[in-house]
Specification:
Blueprint (H helix, E strand, L loop, with lengths): L20 H26 L2 H6 L5 H17 L7 H24 L5
Helix pairs in contact: 1-3, 1-4, 3-4
Length: about 110
């Protein structure tokens, strides 16, 4: 069968049309952000509760809930959704702002 000009070319066996590099990139991003959110949740749970209050951040249950909710949203919807972007932002805020501050109190120094 000779393809007619302008008609879509058939996809190779075992693949769906449109499943290429961009699908793999978005799926990889989703899995990486899900792993990072899960790591942030575990880290929020294992830190001592007094450290959060000592550095003037939200409480331990609040950060555990925020990071858990972020992980659930990223699992269900991915980072490229309406709720996915705030979930990514919440996870990143915990990892770059809250975690270093709480770790500094745990070690006994207040600087990074």
């Amino acid at each position: 069968m000779v393809p007619v000009e302008g008609s879509p070319t058939p996809s190779p066996a075992g693949t769906l049309p449109g499943m290429g590099f961009d699908f793999a990139l978005v799926e990889g991003l989703r899995l990486v952000m899900l792993a990072v959110a899960a790591w942030a949740f575990v880290d929020a749970v294992i830190r001592p509760a007094a450290g959060y209050v000592a550095v003037g951040k939200l409480t331990k249950p609040a950060w555990a809930a925020i990071t858990a909710l972020s992980a659930v949203i990223l699992y269900l919807q991915g980072p490229m959704s309406f709720l996915g972007l705030p979930a990514v932002i919440a996870t990143v805020v915990y990892l770059v702002d809250v975690r270093p501050a709480v770790r500094g109190v745990q070690r006994g120094n207040n600087s990074w």
